[in-house]
C-alpha cells in the first residue's frame, strides 16, 4: 500500500512497482508488459516509462526494496550480537524472512536473472548498487564481531560471504519445503562453517585457500545459476506459450511513448 504522506511522485512510483510485482506473480515476468502494468496501475504508458525505463528497471526497484527491508530487519541483530556465527546466521535468515512473500515471484523471473549477461543478474552492472550494499552489510558483520579477521583477507571475505549468500538464494529459489525450512537449515549450517573457516584463517598457511575459494565462487557461481535454472525449466515447464513473444513484438512496434521532459534532478518540468 502506498504511503499517503509521501510525495505524489513517490506514491506513483510505489504504485507502479507494487502493480508490477503483483502481475509478475500472477502472469510471470515474460508475459507481463509495461503497457499492462500501466493499465493495471491506472497511469499512462508514458508515465510508467518515466518512472521505470523498462521491466528490468522494475526488477531493480524490487532489489532495492528487498535490500532496504533487509537492512531494517537485520539492524537489531548487528547492534546486539558480537558472536560472528550469530551475526552471519541472522543476516541470512532475516533475508529469507524478508524475501519469503516473493518466493513464487522469484522462481518466475529467476530464469532471466540467472543469465550473467542479463541486467537482472545480481552480477550485472545495473545491479551494482544493490550488490555493493549487500557486500557492505557482510563487511559490517565482520567488523562488529569479536572474531578478528586477518588484515590480508579483509578485502575478499565480505564479497566471498555475499557470493555464498547468492548460492543460498539459488537454493531457496528451487526449495519447495514448507516455509523454506531446508534453506533455513542450510543458512544456519553455512554460517557455522563460514565462522569456522574464518577462525582457522588465523593460520597464515590457510589464507591462500580463502582467496582460491573466493575466485572459485566468483568464476563459477553465475554459470551454475544459469545451468540450474535451465535444468529446472526443462523439467517443469509446459510447451512454451507463443503469446508473450507476440505481445512483446506488438509492444515493440507501437510508437515510442512520450516521456515528460526532465530537469537535471530527474523530475519532470511542469
Could you give the topology of this structure?
Layout: H1 8-27, H2 34-41, H3 45-51, H4 55-80, H5 84-99, H6 103-113, H7 128-143, H8 157-174, H9 181-200, H10 207-236, H11 243-253
Helix pairs in contact: 1-2, 1-6, 2-3, 4-5, 4-7, 5-7, 5-9, 7-8, 8-9, 8-10
What does this structure look like?
The chain is mainly alpha-helical and 270 residues long. The chain is 68% helix and 0% strand. The chain has eleven helices and no strands. The longest helix is centred in the C-terminal third of the chain and has 30 residues, at 207-236. The chain is elongated. The two termini are 27 Å apart. The model is unreliable at 235-270 (pLDDT under 50).
The CA-CA distance between the termini, in Å, is 27 Å
Number of beta strands:
0
Write down the Rg. 21 Å
**Largest sheet features:** none
Fraction of residues in H or I helices: 55-70%
Order of helices and strands: HHHHHHHHHHH
Class derived from helix and strand content: mainly alpha
**Mean of pLDDT:** 81
Identify the overall geometry: elongated
Amino acid at each position: 500500500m502506498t504511503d499517503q504522506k509521501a510525495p505524489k511522485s513517490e506514491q506513483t512510483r510505489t504504485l507502479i512497482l507494487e502493480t508490477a510485482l503483483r502481475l509478475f506473480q500472477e502472469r510471470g515476468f515474460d508475459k507481463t508488459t509495461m503497457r499492462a502494468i500501466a493499465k493495471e496501475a491506472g497511469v499512462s504508458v508514458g508515465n510508467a516509462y518515466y518512472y521505470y525505463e523498462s521491466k528490468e528497471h522494475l526488477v531493480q526497484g524490487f532489489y532495492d526494496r528487498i535490500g532496504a527491508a533487509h537492512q531494517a530487519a537485520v539492524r537489531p541483530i548487528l547492534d546486539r550480537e558480537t558472536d560472528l556465527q550469530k551475526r552471519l546466521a541472522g543476516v541470512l535468515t532475516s533475508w529469507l524472512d524478508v524475501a519469503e512473500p516473493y518466493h513464487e515471484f522469484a522462481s518466475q523471473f529467476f530464469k532471466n536473472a540467472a543469465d550473467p549477461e542479463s541486467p537482472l543478474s545480481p552480477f550485472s552492472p545495473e545491479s551494482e548498487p544493490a550488490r555493493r550494499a549487500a557486500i557492505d552489510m557482510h563487511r559490517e558483520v565482520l567488523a562488529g564481531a569479536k572474531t578478528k579477521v586477518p588484515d590480508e583477507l579483509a578485502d575478499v571475505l565480505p564479497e566471498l560471504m555475499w557470493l555464498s549468500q547468492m548460492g543460498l538464494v539459488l537454493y531457496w529459489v528451487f526449495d519447495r519445503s514448507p516455509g523454506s525450512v531446508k534453506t533455513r537449515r542450510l543458512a544456519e549450517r553455512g554460517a557455522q562453517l563460514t565462522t569456522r573457516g574464518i577462525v582457522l584463517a588465523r593460520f597464515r598457511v590457510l589464507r591462500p585457500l580463502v582467496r582460491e575459494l573466493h575466485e572459485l565462487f566468483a568464476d563459477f557461481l553465475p554459470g551454475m545459476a544459469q545451468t540450474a535454472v535451465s535444468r529446472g525449466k526443462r523439467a517443469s515447464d509446459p510447451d512454451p506459450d507463443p503469446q508473450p513473444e507476440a505481445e512483446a513484438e506488438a509492444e515493440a512496434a507501437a510508437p515510442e511513448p512520450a516521456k515528460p521532459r526532465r530537469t537535471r534532478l530527474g523530475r519532470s518540468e511542469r
